[in-house]
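Quick note —
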Amino acid sequence: MGRWHLNPSRPVALDVWFGLSFMPALDSITVVASCNRPIIDHWYYFVSVRMMAMASLVSFIILLFSNPTTKPFVSQYPGIVFISAFATYGLIGLCLDRSCAPPPKRTANLRSWSLSEYANALSRSNGTWKAAITSTAVTCGLGTVLTVVIPADWSTIIPVITTGFEAVFLRLNKFGRTSQYTVCAALFFQGGVCVQRGLRQVLVSPSLVIPPWMFLSLPVVSRLVLDLHLYTVFREYPEFSWARRNAVISTTTLVQTVAMLLVLEATQFPVMRWVKPITVLILYSTSIVGVSMPAAYNIAFEIISNT
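Predicted structure written out below.
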């Protein structure tokens, strides 16, 4: 463990961001595996985006404390920094609540769906390819513009902005998340998220900078923050409680996995050194396939049925 030295810098902030965002990303994938479309949509917009925004804000605060220009101010007025961060987090949550219809407070559909049921749910909102391509150009084009305009240190916030914009745009034009749109947008939208929250960060610091024990503690902290939200902000929504119990990885399994990895690290088996590029490759590949496969299945089934 002696080879790890903690130096406040951008790589440290990126490691903290990766550690805090790992479980929200993994939880999103496991919720998608339930194939329950309403729960998938609500979990993504109301839970995952919030957790990712929190990780980005924490990372940004670390950058402020390590930047020579901002360090004197934030060191003298840390209370203002943290209050501003909480206010920003609350504003992001408010915008998400206003841009998307809230989950039902009473629902009888708390179960995993089959792939065919998920495809049938998608088929109820089929649209035209022309509208799908146009909507994809608008929603995914915003990410390209923001990539050029927003500084690299703030790039992890771009997916939060594009996700909120997508929700508002699809709701205002009453187009909806059709199968055609999902197939068109999944690669570009998820690819953009992969670049902003994955590749861009890995290129700056491919291997871990912070000690493995510190990195491994961050997913546990993230899970505790999720549970705090479920017991407070989201306590009225049974969909989220069901997903927490039946879809996402349990806290017990998470802690056991963390303990096993710590034991391997203690025996000089460096399983965590290259965890970031491996995580980016696996999580985002799985995400793209998981999002686009049911929509592609539905389109193919419809084509076959019409022939």
